[in-house]
Write a structure and sequence with these properties.
There is one protein chain. This protein has five helices and seven strands. It has a four-stranded antiparallel sheet with strand order 2-1-3-4. A hairpin with a 6-residue loop joins strand 1 and strand 2. It is globular, with a radius of gyration of 19 Å.
Length: 200
Amino acid sequence: MTRAFCLSAAILLALAGCREETAADLPPPVAMTAEAVGHYCQMELLEHPGPKAQVHLTGLPDPLFFSQVRDAIAYQRMPEQSHMIAVIYVSDMGAAPGWENPGAENWIEATGAHYVLGAEVAGGMGAPELVPFSDPEAAKAFAARHGGEVRRLSDIADTDVLAPAEIGHSGAPSGDDDIDPGTDDSLTDRLRALTRDEES
């Protein structure tokens, strides 16, 4: 019995060691700079308000940046990926200076975040957004002010991120929190122009 217990303990320790080694092998998040551009829009991320995401692909040195968290999660769930995803990092909006400035280095793993889904906020591309927080209480407080509900990543349905989104989704009303989800009229105009170009 003692021998069986020791064997079980040894196996558990080995598995724990493997998990730690795997986490240590994950590429670290990259600070967002003026050179970072969105994977889909190819526009500078710093021009867009709201949370951002970076997707690290196995075997590639640089991450793909996304102007909206919703777009990064949609990318993860699309079946046409050519590379394995090593890790996704998202902006921790609880540590963000504000909605217009989501921060350059306050990244958290997407799987560990608490997301506000369905809030009356517009993301960087003017579409509904998943607003990530490391602190569940901060997420609940944001949802109480701006609507929506708090979910973990595994509880967000594919239809929540893959369904077509209306560009120009209304921003949240001005609140008393530091994260003020506003709108960027010049960005909206550029997006409308892009849409017209694609249709013509």
